[in-house]
Amino acid sequence: MNMAVLNKKPADIISFILIPTYLLFLSSKVSFAQDSINQSQFVSEANTLVSKDGSFELGFFRPGNSNNRYLGIWYKNIPVKTIVWVANRLYPINDSSGLLMINSSGGSVVLMSQNKSAVVWSTSSQRQANNPLLQLLDSGNLVLTVTDEKDENLRISSWESFDYPTDTFLPGMKFGWDLKKGINRLFTAWKKPDDPSPGDFTHGLSEMGIHSYPEAYVWKGNKKFYRAGPWNGLRFSGSPDLKPNPVYDYNFVSNENEVYFTYTLKNKSLISIVVVNQTSHTRDRYTWIETEKVWRVYSSRPRDYCDNYGLCGANGNCVLAASPVCQCLKAFKPKSPELWSSMEWSQGCVRNKPLSCHTDGFVEFVDLKLPDTTYSWVNKSMSLEECRVKCLKNCSCMAYTNSDISGGGSGCAIWFGDLMDIRQFSAGGQNLYIRMSTSELLGVVCCVKFNYEEEKHGPKIKIAVSVAAALAVVSGTLLVGLFTYRIRTNLKVKKEPKGIISHQNNEGQKEDLELPFLDLSTIVGATDNFALNNKLGEGGFGPVHKGILEDGQEIAIKRLSRSSGQGLNEFKNEVRLIAKLQHRNLVKLVACCVQGEEKMLVYEYMPNKSLDSFIFDQTKSKLLDWSMRFNIICGIARGLQYLHQDSRLRIIHRDLKASNVLLDSEMNPKISDFGAARTFGGDQSEGNTKRVFGTYGYMAPEYALDGQFSTKSDVFSFGILLLEIISGKKNRGFFHPNHSHNLIGYAWILWNEGRPLELIDECLGQSSTLSEVLRCIHISLLCVQQCPEDRPSMSSVIVMLGSESALPHPRQPGFYLEKNSNEAHCFSSKQEPSSTNEITITLLEAR
Ligand SMILES: *[C@@H]1O[C@H](CO)[C@@H](O)[C@H](O)[C@H]1NC(C)=O
Ligand SMILES: *[C@@H]1O[C@H](CO)[C@@H](O)[C@H](O)[C@H]1NC(C)=O
Ligand SMILES: *[C@@H]1O[C@H](CO)[C@@H](O)[C@H](O)[C@H]1NC(C)=O
Fold first, then answer.
1. Ligand 1 centroid to 299 CA: how many Å?
2. Beta-bridge mates of residue 797
3. 314 and 418 in contact (C-beta within 8 Å)?
4. What angle separates helix 711-727 from helix 626-641, to the nearest 10 degrees?
5. What residues contact residue 729 under an 8 Å CB cut-off, 6+ apart?
6. What is the Å distance from ligand 2's center to 120 Cα?
7. Which is the closest atom of ligand 3 to the Cα of 396?
8. Can you tell me the distance from the alpha carbon of 526 to that of 542, in angstroms, rounded to the nearest whole number?
């Protein structure tokens, strides 16, 4: 804001002026009790132009102690001289003269220094114009209008000062682009309070590209200093405090002709302006306080430390309440830890784990200022889901969100490359979905929408932790004592369960096994000597019996067939390894027993038996609604993923099927028989086996035909299981009156005909969430694809189950024509079991 005392010269000082020939007819005695001049009048040192309502005045002024003269506009009705516009800010008149007029052709306004008769400043000229009229409007806009070439009664604006602002954003001005005129209205600070020439502080809307998402900036020189962020339908993303208020109304207009922000005052008797200030390095809104006759700052930008552009570098998040303020976004780490810890954050952050592109997912961050939109893309008509798909498809897309958050959210904005200048708000920010690698998402995402609460409450958590830590220090000894005591007591109880006798090794030393060994006599007692009515079923490698230990604990005992041919130590080592596989979706091995030829595994007992006893049973299947089934699906996926990837052993199950999924009392799924193939099936390495071990209807083609097994053959079995859980039908033994396909084939047909929902088990009725079911069908088809390479890993399956991102199109499944000669051939030399019971078989491949 520039308050200059006008240094008016008395009118008589300007006596004679060298006037260009075209002005010879002008009268120098013009009265300016008016708001406009035409071709035969001019504004000189002696007079001014006043807007109709008397609020603005145009004339010559000399700022501060400067000898330079400028033509400008100021508020006429307030006592503090406030210059809001300057015409010749670059070319001051340094003598005591000056004349503003319309040139003879009428197409432009020129400012002359009188005694040199030189043009100091001029508006862009139009060749010829009729009846030009220069007016100072009540808004403070100086406008040159001319009559339209075609319609004499129509006056059109050929130039206006609002299009060429200086440092002051007046009500009604447009902040931004006029794409037809090709102008961007930028506001540039005065260099000094007595020098209106442009400083290096500029405020305006960023450049418009074809796809760009314009945002408001304050630049210092050509560097970004403060970024207000893109317009999100309600406000600039970095200005949560821009809200409906008693002083002014605002609006953002974006169409093919114009993109601008504007505001108007609610009450015409109020005065409020926005000014860029070189000295304070701020862009301030002032309101005039009539009672005190002063300008008061209403709001100021940048408002705090986090408003400094890019303070935290790429992928950093500025959290004002945190200490230090700069934090890497979740899943990112400082690029240079040394610099970062010395509070030099400009290097920013890099990912903990690299992206894998097509299997990535997104994490929702809440209440952020959206990142710099320089490398962004917008489509105003796309939905958020389409946006996610679009982003996922392009490996350089890092984040997406709605481009407009008004009315519940619409449109799509996506970002490429590093995310710059993000800050955290506690409210009024925006949600941003940032791309993450599968491994970052793992364990957090399956079946539960990622909840980013800890980021939102980051500082709060920190405080809570430090308080807790302080408490711990104060009462340290006491707490530690208590803890040790508790742990010891628990261990005692766990280590010596009744009926379990610790095993003695050959040297007579007690082995420190995590897995207890049970005495055969104990097991014989628990199972009533393996009584038939205690038999639970027949798994791979032997029968399973229920047993009750002396203390009442229920157990399931698998008695391995005697022919495994494995040595005692080998067996013990394997069992010990398998005992270490602990996951809530794996049946827990609680003990084992080796005596003579007998080898037994003791598992926790699952009261609800196996999954097949529910899904394929007309009555019991009604007990499993969709949400339970979905929970079971996710649990199986997690258990399998653990076997494949997270456990040290990298176990391939090789016999995943509904009867190998047990259900605990809360219907949580637990995979059983894992590691069985590895331990008892002979072949222990991935790759190729001579012995095909598995179950008809669940085996992947490459495994059943060529003995090729891998985690992907388990994925195939998982896909079948998924179809069975959804449809309540067995893949093997599936019968359809109209064709000879198995369940996979039937699902494939329905999928291609766009009727996948017909696959759903009728008893699911209303309970199912169709989008979830559809997604599961889609995933199952991806799992049963013919080529192992096409099938997703279990990690990807988990991400797919838990997210809403787009899935690839499934290719043709394997084994979908069960009764087709081609595939029947594979089994032609073997005896197919006559029933459709799922009995694990071991086939010796003829080679
Ligand atoms: C505008 O402000 C004046 C002075 O504060 C007040 O008297 C008047 O009632 C206001 N008008 C409206 C429409 O609010
Ligand atoms: C924006 O999205 C809509 C809907 O998906 C589409 O029809 C349109 O072609 C898109 N526009 C551009 C420029 O991509
Ligand atoms: C991804 O987006 C970038 C930036 O818009 C573009 O240059 C690139 O061609 C896109 N890649 C694909 C595969 O669409």
1. 22
2. none
3. yes
4. 170
5. 616, 743, 761
6. 50
7. 1
8. 18
If you ran DSSP here, which 8-state letter would residue 207 be given? P
Alpha helices in 618-686 (DSSP H): 626-641, 676-680
Cα-to-centroid distance, 252 and ligand 3 (Å): 29
Atom 6 of ligand 1: nearest residue by CA position: 269
Q: Which of 35, 167, 372, 655 is catalytic?
A: 655
269 lines ligand 1 (CB under 6 A): yes
Of 511, 513, 549, the closest CA to residue 528 belongs to 549
Exposed / middle / buried, residue 9 (Cβ in 10 Å: 0-12, 13-18, 19+): middle
| Any ligand 1 atom below 6 A from CB of 267 | yes
**Which DSSP symbol is given to 499?**
T
CB within 8 Å of 2: residues ≥ 6 apart: 63, 82, 83, 167, 190, 193, 196
* Peptide bond just before 337 cis, omega within 30 deg: no
Q: What is the pLDDT of residues 660-699, one digit of tens each?
A: 899 998 899 999 887 665 555 444 444 555 556 677 788 8
Task: Pick the closest to residue 174 from 274, 92, 74, 104 (CA basis).
Answer: 274
Q: What is the rounded CA–CA span in Å between residue 33 and residue 101?
A: 17
pLDDT in tens, 335-363: 999 999 999 999 999 998 888 777 778 88
- Whether 664 is catalytic is no
Atom 11, ligand 3: residue with shortest CA distance: 394
Length of the chain in terms of residues written: 847
Q: Is 338 exposed, middle or buried (0-12, 13-18, 19+ CB in 10 A)?
A: exposed
Which ligand places an atom closest to the C-alpha of 381? 2
Under a CB-based contact definition with an 8 Å cutoff, are residues 44 and 113 in contact?
no
Q: What is the mean pLDDT of residues 823-835?
A: 34
Q: What are phi and psi of 400, to 5 degrees?
A: -150, 160
**pTM score:** 0.55
Q: What single DSSP character describes residue 813?
A: B
**CA-CA distance, 25 to 16, in Å (whole number)?**
14
**Nearest protein Cα to ligand 1, atom 12:** 267
Residue matched to tokens 């389409």:
386
